[in-house]
Structure formats: structure tokens, C-alpha cells
Design a protein that fits this description.
The protein is of the alpha/beta class. Helices cover 49% and strands 14% of the residues. Helix 28 packs across helix 29. The chain is globular. The structure holds pyridoxal-5'-phosphate. One of its GO terms (cellular component) is cytoplasm.
């Protein structure tokens, strides 16, 4: 595939596909033409891969996830296809700039944060490891909202990401399936006289698949991301229509189509909305029907379904699939219960993503009954049989039965999706060592006691292709110059960088790369926030969803502490720092939105106070998403991973930062613990209570007031917020924050405050010694091999999915021999 061929294809796509010539093409037309050029190259490997899987009858990993936060496709596809440099050249010779075209792609935000991004990293690693896989999800018409900041407040703007079309997807109308809802059930007797149940539904919705090719890095494998779009079912109400009820018929059509309209913007806080349950069932049912249809193309029945597929549930969102597979097997494929249950359990595995009790999904039984009456019956039957077993294994243990039951009785009769997921799966995993341990000890303790062999830990990872090579080309070039490019498919090879910490010239170049990345971010901040920041200052960064447990507020308390020191003594020794924040708050999460307002209010005061003399700057960057992350992680000096211990399941942002040479200030939470183990305690800024100490402090009775009265500097910080200093004298505005800190402090900011402030001083001491800091930075990056999602996926493949890689042979596309050859 020569530069000449690429140039030619680019021009042809502008002309024939986009329908423009250079005299009136817009920048977006050029982007589209380039995207089609790259897509054409993907398709050959895509079809080859499908044929290969079909011919070999391989086991396919089906990753069910309500969210896939893929990020922009163009740059990543160029990298994985190995044509970045050639396309760069072709675009340059065409008089354009590849970097600018890449920026024109609308970042597809079909996820909230870490969970959705994990699914995207997993698809990249599955294809790279040549594992047959398909991601199933929902093609939301509106992804996560666009965040604007107005007067310091978050404003949500709809994300019309499909407005100009999406060149990376292909609609497969012929593979549509029908998804049923509502109605009631009836029993009858089949020809053998056995009792059977039919579901007399009252509504169907058509699920149309849209496929996005997912290429592996340096392989010929191109897997599929299949996202379902809802369309009014074929039983569109023609009766109403013909009876003259046009409005009614259209309304019912519209309501069916709202199912895939919008992503719920809540992270870690489910809201029991009917439409959300409809979304979950919609994609679970569509995906299962697709899986079964594919299986029956090669097998005469579903007896060995679990040898053909492994279905992974990314959190409980797709868990209704367990009841749906039982229904399909029993009601539609005439299996008896026991056999159906055996197949189901062997097919599913469940990943838990949270320890927050309020984040565990529960659905009111009444909602299930009206929407999925047959599934409710099946869940009751699963529960009945399960509890009978528990009674024999643990006689006279009513409490245990109550805890393990799928049905919760109070305050409202509801279905505990995590319990259903545990009972219906053969494997259950947490996403970091501490998280898995806490699941086994607390959240899922009864299940871990019952089935210890079902529990696994699978510490998260991220793909180094997007998060190092694409995001940080300068660092990648330096690394490759020293150790070759093998690290991109085997991240453990980064270890080979360790000897270079003693090489002063290498350290200087390492620093230069970081400085150039900081300069680029400086320009971004100037452009978007009209704020001048000093690239020689410490770039202290916290970017992630806004959540009280993540404690963005603790970082704000540190900023105000430093500010107070300056106000106390303008000559105080305060090292220059730029505090960079980014992250969206759920639109209904009042406290999180108020924290954004506080950060911006502090920024307004601190950034323009002449006494500060530019030593402290605060920048809240609007609309944090994957593409903004790609600019931020490589420019960070300090990574803030400061959640209350025991609350963050894993974190993956922590990994992206460290891979790009940032040092971490963090608590013993989630994957921070394992990152610290890998990089060495001496290269990690640790502070704060442990998860156990958090627990025991709570049990003993935690009183934040004691800390407030016992710490003059802390008191001055809170008093300054309370005084209205950051709110133009308005003492009401931030009162909810002050009250929450002083009277509840659920996440123990005050208990960790002094340790955090002290630790930040250690950060400054280390930073002042640039050679020492650089060594620590290099060692962090060099020791991050474990946190490649390739390692994570290998573990899932070998220990849970029992799937095998399949090589796809290469076949260079020959455009001179592209005539059809249709077999009659
Ligand atoms: C990695 C990532 C996250 C997860 O960040 P955490 O710090 O682990 O919470 C969230 N959003 C985006 C856009 C990301 O890229």
C-alpha cells in the first residue's frame, strides 16, 4: 500500500463517496474522505477475519457492555493498521495536515467513564491478541453530554455525534432481530403433555445492528463492535393508524425508538428508570438472539453453546441476559430447566465494578412484572431453586437466605442484579486485587463462602497503543529509539528502560519530551480558558468523573491551604503549581456540580490575585473525554489518585498517567496499590488512611469536627470557603459543601487532610531536584508493563473464557483485481 495509492484513494473518496471536489470541499469533507480511505483498508481484513472464524468454528468472546467509550477512530486505526506514517505522507503531499484532520472527528462518547473506556481497551487487546471477539452494546443517538462551563457552573449540551454521519460504522439491516416487551404469560401443554409457558408480549422493537471494525495492532485480525439501534417494531400499530389514530400510532413508534436515544449520564449511581431497564433488556436480548443464530449456523442445537461462546457481563447492566437465555432455551428451544440452567451458568461470567453499596443495581419487581413478565417468573424460579439449595447447605440460617436472595423485600420489593449475576455465572471477578478482596470479604461475602472457586481477580489495564503511542508520540519515539518497538505488543519490555535512568543525556531528553507536552497543553489552556500557565510549574492533574468519593474537593482544600499561606505571608515558600481539573458531573448530582462551581470560584480568585504572583494557577478544562485525555495524561507531572481507601474499584486513569511518566500522589485504593508495588514505594507519594482504618474509624464514631477544631490551617481553609470569600460574599452558595464536611464527611476528607498536605510537600521537595524527579518518572513508566490491557485480557482468556487465539492470514488488497465474482 504505497503513498501514491493512498493519495489516489483519498482523492477518489473525496470525489465519489463524499461527492465533492477540491473547489468546494470543506475540512470535514477531507476528514470523511480520509476516513473512507482507511475504512476500505479495514474491510478486507474485517471480512477475512469473519470468514476465518466461521470456517474454523472457533470459540468467540462476547463482551456485553452498556457502554463503549471508544475515542476517536481515525488515528488509532492508522496505528493499528501500521499505515500512520504513509497516510501522514499522503495527506501532506495532498496539501493537508493529518493532525488537524484527526481533530475533526467527533469523539464518540458512548460511555460515562472508566467502565466504558475499559470495554474499549479490552476490544483493542482482544484484536491485538488475535482472540475471536465481538463487543455488543447500544448505539446511542446521543452519547454522554457535552460539558460547557458557564459562570463556573456545568452546563449540559446534547451530544449530536451522528450529525455529519459516522464513516466507521456499517448498518446491517438484514441481521435485525425483534425484541419483545410487556404483555403476560400463558401456560399450555405441548404434544408430549408437558407444561410449557408462552409469553404473549404486547410490543416489539426492532434491533438493527451497526458494526464497527476493531483492528488489532500489528495483526490481520479485525474484530467487530456490534451496537444495536432501536426502531419501532414491525407490528407498528397499523390498526390504530387505519382507524385514523395517526398520532397514537406515531407516538407508539416514537416511544419504541427512544430506547437507543440517549446514554444515561450517571456514573456509579444507577437510577431505577423504566427506559434504562428497557435499554438493558433491548441489547441483552438482541445480542443473545444474534449469538444463538450464529451458533446454530454451525451446530444442530444449543447443547454446547458454552463451547462456542463465552459471554462476559460488564457490570450488572446486561445481567437480564441470564433470564433471557433461560427463556430462549426453555420457551423457544424446548430445553428442560436443568439442562438450560447448566448451559446458562457455563456461558456467563460477571465482572463487578463497584464497592459503593448505593451503586448496586436493583429493579422494582413491579417494573419487571409490567415490562418483562416471563423474565420475572424465571427469576423467581431461579431464586426458589437456589434458596432451596442454600437451606440444605446452611440449615436454619434465615439471615443468610435473606442476604443471598435475588429478591429484596424492603424498602421496596426489588431484584438484586448482582445476586442474579453471581448465581447465573460460572466466574465472578473484581477489577483490582483490593477490590476483589473486599468483594469476597464484604459485598459478595456469602457467595464467596459458597463458591470460592468462582472468584477471580482481573486487575484492569489500558491499551498502550492509544494511551502511549497515539497520545504521546514524542515519548514513544524516544522509547523506541532505545529499546526498539517490541514494547507496544509486550509492555513488560519497558523494563529495558531502567538502565537508562543513569544516563544523563537520556534523562534530559525525557524531561524535554515532558516539557514539550506541557507546552502543548499550555497552549490548549490558553485557547480554551484564556488562562496563562507556566510550563515550568508542577502540572498537578486530577481528571476523572466528578464524584464525592474521588475527592476532587480534597485537592481544592490543598489549593486553598497554599493560597492561605501566601495571604498570610506573601513571601511564603510556595512552589509554582498549575492545578488542572477535568471531569463531568451527573446532571442530577447536586454536590458534584457544586464542587465544579467551587473549583472554578477558587480559580477565579487565585488566578488573578496579584499577591499570588502567578505561583498558583487553577484550570478547570471543560468536557473531559477520551480525546482531551490524550492531550492531558502525557503533560502531567503529578497524577492525583486520592479516593477514600476502599471506594475506587480500580481506576485506569492512574495507569495512563504513570505510563506517560507522571508520578502518583495517592491512597492505598484500587489499582494504586498494585501500581505502587510495581514502581516501588520510593517512587510513589502515598498518604492517608487504609481501607481497614476507614472502616474502623467509622465504627468507632468519626467526628469531623475534631479535625476542624484540632487543625488551625484546616479550619482557616474551611472558614474561608464559609466566609463567602470565593463567592462574592455569598455565604449561602457553598454552605452545603461546608456542612457536608463538618457534619458528615462521608468520605473522610478531614481525616486525610493533614497527611495529604504533608505528602504534597514531599512532592515539591522531589520536584525541586529535577534529576531525582526524572529518575522517578522514568522508573514509573518503565515498570508499568503489568498494566497493559493485553495482560488483563490474557488472564481472562486463559482463566475465564478458555478461548484460543486464531491467526488470520494476510491478503493484500489488490485494487486492480476488484471485479465481482458472484457464484450462482
Ligand atoms: C481513563 C478514563 C476515565 C477513568 O478515569 P479514572 O481516573 O480511572 O476514574 C474516565 N474518563 C475518560 C475519558 C478516560 O479516558
Amino acid at each position: 500500500m504505497s503513498v501514491e495509492t493512498l493519495k489516489r484513494a483519498f482523492a477518489d473518496n473525496l470525489f465519489y463517496t463524499q461527492g465533492k471536489d477540491t473547489s468546494w470541499a470543506t475540512r470535514r469533507d477531507y476528514y470523511m474522505a480520509l476516513a473512507y480511505t482507511v475504512r476500505d483498508r479495514l474491510f478486507h481484513r474485517f471480512f477475512k477475519t469473519r470468514k476465518r472464524y466461521f470456517a474454523k468454528d472457533v470459540k468467540v468472546v462476547c463482551y456485553l457492555s452498556a457502554e463503549f467509550l471508544m475515542g476517536r477512530h481515525l488515528g488509532n486505526n492508522l496505528i493499528n493498521l501500521g499505515i500512520y506514517d504513509r497516510v501522514n505522507e499522503a495527506v501532506r503531499e495532498s496539501g493537508l495536515d493529518l493532525g488537524k484532520l484527526i481533530e475533526l472527528e467527533h469523539d464518540p462518547g458512548l460511555g460515562n467513564g472508566g467502565l466504558g473506556r475499559l470495554a474499549a481497551c479490552f476490544l483493542d487487546s482482544l484484536a491485538t491478541l488475535e482472540v475471536p471477539a465481538i463487543g455488543y452494546g447500544i448505539r446511542y443517538e446521543f452519547g454522554i453530554f457535552h460539558q460547557a462551563i458557564k459562570d463556573g457552573w456545568q452546563v449540559e449540551v446534547p451530544d449530536k455525534w451522528l450529525r455529519f454521519g459516522n464513516p466507521w460504522e456499517i448498518c446491517r439491516r438484514e441481521a435485525s432481530v425483534q425484541v419483545k416487551f410487556g404483555g403476560h404469560t400463558e401456560t399450555y401443554h405441548d404434544q408430549q403433555g408437558n407444561p410449557r409457558v408462552t409469553w404473549i408480549h404486547d410490543r416489539t422493537v426492532t434491533a438493527i445492528p451497526y458494526d464497527t471494525p476493531v483492528p488489532g495492532y500489528n495483526t490481520n485480525t479485525v474484530n467487530t463492535l456490534r451496537l444495536w439501534r432501536a426502531l419501532a417494531g414491525d407490528d407498528f400499530d397499523f390498526q390504530a393508524f387505519n382507524a385514523g389514530d395517526y398520532d397514537g400510532a406515531v407516538a407508539s413508534k416514537m416511544s419504541s425508538e427512544t430506547i437507543s436515544k440517549v446514554l444515561y449520564p450517571n456514573d456509579n449511581t444507577p437510577q431505577g428508570r423504566q427506559l434504562r431497564l428497557e435499554q438493558q433488556f433491548f441489547f441483552a436480548s438482541a445480542s443473545l438472539q444474534d449469538i444463538i443464530r450464529n451458533h446454530l449456523r454451525l451446530h444442530k442445537n444449543l447443547d454446547a453453546l458454552y463451547e462456542g461462546v463465552a459471554i462476559q457481563l460488564n457490570d450488572t447492566h446486561p445481567t437480564v441476559a441470564i433470564a433471557e437465555l433461560m427463556r430462549l432455551l426453555i420457551d423457544e428451544h424446548q430445553y428442560y430447566w436443568d439442562k438450560a440452567w447448566y448451559i446458562t451458568q457455563k456461558t456467563f461470567a460477571y465482572t463487578n465494578h463497584t464497592l459503593l453499596p448505593e451503586a448496586l443495581e436493583r429493579w422494582p419487581v413491579s417494573l419487571f412484572e409490567s415490562l418483562l413478565p416471563r423474565h420475572l417468573e424465571i427469576i423467581y424460579e431461579i431464586n426458589h431453586r437456589f434458596l432451596e439449595d442454600i437451606k440444605t447447605w446452611f440449615p436454619d440460617d434465615e439471615d443468610r437466605l435473606g442476604r443471598m436472595s435475588i429478591i429484596e423485600e424492603f424498602p421496596e420489593k426489588s431484584i438484586r442484579m448482582a445476586n442474579l449475576a453471581c448465581i447465573g455465572s460460572h466466574a465472578i471477578n473484581g477489577v483490582a486485587a483490593l477490590h476483589t478482596e473486599l468483594l469476597q470479604k464484604h459485598t459478595l461475602r456469602d457467595f464467596a463462602e459458597l463458591w470460592p472457586e468462582k472468584f477471580f481477580n482481573k486487575t484492569n489495564g489500558v491499551t498502550p497503543r492509544r494511551w502511549i503511542l497515539l497520545s504521546n508520540p514524542k515519548l514513544s519515539e524516544l522509547i523506541t529509539e532505545k529499546i526498539g518497538d517490541g514494547w507496544l505488543s509486550n509492555l513488560d519490555q519497558l523494563k529495558q528502560l531502567e538502565p537508562f535512568v543513569e544516563d544523563a543525556d537520556f534523562r534530559r531528553r525525557w524531561r524535554e519530551v515532558k516539557h514539550e507536552n506541557k507546552l502543548q497543553l499550555t497552549q490548549y489552556i490558553w485557547k480554551h480558558n484564556s488562562l496563562e500557565v507556566d510550563p515550568h510549574s508542577i502540572f498537578d492533574v486530577q481528571v476523572k468523573r466528578l464524584h464525592e468519593y474521588k475527592r476532587q474537593l480534597l485537592s481544592a482544600l490543598n489549593i486553598i491551604t497554599l493560597y492561605n499561606r501566601i495571604k498570610e505571608n506573601p513571601n511564603a515558600d510556595v512552589f509554582p503549581r498549575t492545578f488542572i481539573f477535568g471531569g463531568k458531573a451527573a446532571p442530577g448530582y447536586y454536590m458534584a456540580k457544586l464542587i465544579i462551581k467551587l473549583i472554578n470560584a477558587v480559580a477565579e480568585v487565585v488566578n488573578k490575585d496579584p499577591e499570588v504572583h502567578g505561583r498558583l494557577k487553577v484550570a478547570f478544562l471543560a468536557n473531559f473525554n477520551v480525546s482531551l485525555g490524550q492531550k492531558i495524561y502525557p503533560a502531567a507531572d503529578l497524577s492525583e489518585q486520592i479516593s477514600t481507601a476502599g471506594k475506587e474499584a480500580s481506576g485506569t486513569g492512574n495507569m495512563k498517567f504513570a505510563m506517560n511518566g507522571a508520578l502518583t500522589i495517592g491512597t492505598l485504593d484500587g489499582a494504586n496499590i498494585e501500581i505502587r508495588e510495581e514502581v516501588g514505594a520510593e517512587n510513589f507519594f502515598l498518604f492517608g488512611l487504609t481501607a481497614e482504618e476507614v472502616q474502623s474509624t467509622k465504627v468507632q464514631g468519626y467526628n469531623p469536627m475534631d479535625y476542624y477544631h484540632g487543625n488551625a490551617e484546616l479550619k482557616a481553609v474551611i472558614d474561608r470557603i464559609d466566609s463567602g470569600y470565593f463567592s462574592h460574599g455569598n455565604q449561602e452558595l457553598f454552605k452545603p459543601i461546608v456542612d457536608s464536611l463538618l457534619h458528615h464527611d462521608q468520605y473522610m476528607l478531614l481525616a486525610d487532610y493533614q497527611a495529604y498536605i504533608d505528602c504534597q510537600e514531599k512532592v515539591v521537595e522531589a520536584y525541586k531536584d529535577q534529576e531525582r524527579w526524572t529518575k522517578m518518572s522514568i522508573l514509573n513508566a518503565a515498570r508499568m508493563g503489568k498494566f497493559s490491557s493485553d495482560r488483563t485480557i490474557n488472564e481472562y482468556v486463559n482463566e475465564i473464557w478458555k478461548a484460543k487465539p486464531v491467526k488470520v492470514e494476510s491478503e493484500e488488497y489488490d485494487s486492480n483485481n476488484a471485479g465481482l465474482n458472484v457464484q450462482p
